[in-house]
Amino acid sequence: MDRNAIMERVRAQMPERRWAHTAGVMETAVRLAERYGADPAKAELAAMLHDVAKYWAIEAQRRVLIESGEAGDLLGYDPALWHAPVGAYVAKRDYGVEDAAVLDAIRWHTSGRVGMTKLDKVVCLADYIEPGRDFPGVDRIREEAERSLERALVLGFDSTIAYLIANGRPIYPLTVMARNDLIRQLDKEADNG
Ligand code: DGI
Ligand code: FE
Ligand code: FE
Which of 23, 86, 124, 144 pairs with 33 at a CA distance of 20 to 30 A? Predict the structure, then answer.
């Protein structure tokens, strides 16, 4: 499938406001990729498909996770996390995306992971700061995104973790590990610089 065919089909899958979010993530991911040296075409494709499974019924998502072998420890955590790996699976199966780097950026866009690639970071951060986003602290993350991809993403994870704590929700441990890993990278950079 070519770019426009994928775009139209993704759009038809979701309510118009989620498409507006997706379009915002695409635009922001391209800009961040150009700014920080990731592949803009891959960033756009990953952004286009990142929430493709967001509106699937939870039971359908559970089934895909189990059948695809992508479940890992996710079934024990918030179903809001599931659409990311389900999206990667669907991007490959239904949209013919073969690029492993693009599929990874989709797979890890919600939780993050240890050893996030530049592309993973760009898509994950774009998801936090696309123009339609409005949550406490988003402008500070947008400002930081002009200076440091990693520092901005740490702020993004901080806001999610703080929100989960404020609401008495469990935290998926990989999100904490992803945040710690980014801080480790920043500390190492500071030592070398
Ligand atoms: O799909 P989006 O709404 O665009 O954004 P997303 O893919 O970042 O989904 C985030 C949702 O997942 C958000 O409502 C918070 C929820 N969530 C629940 N537990 C965790 C979590 N997100 C992260 N990163 N880590 C968690 O432990
Ligand atoms: Fe998402
Ligand atoms: Fe999103």
Answer: 86
Confidence of residue 69 (pLDDT cuts 50, 70, 90): confident
Residue 112: CATH number of its domain: 1.10.3210.10
Residue 148: pLDDT band with limits 50, 70, 90: very high
Tell how many helices (H) and how many strands (E) occur in the chain.
Answer: 10, 0
Distance 192 CA to ligand 1 centre (A): 33
The domain total for the chain is: 1
Distance of alpha carbon 96 from alpha carbon 10, whole angstroms: 13
Kindly report the pTM of this predicted structure. 0.97
CB of residue 109 inside a 6 A radius of ligand 1? yes
Q: Is the separation of the CB atoms in 25 and 127 below 8 Å?
A: yes
- Coil, strand or helix at 73: coil
User: Does 161 sit in the ligand 1 pocket, CB within 6 Å?
Assistant: no
Is the CB of 28 within 6 Å of ligand 1? Answer: no
Return the ligand 1 atom nearest residue 128 CA: 8
Distance 160 CA to ligand 1 centre (A): 7
Query: What pLDDT sits at residue 15?
Result: 93
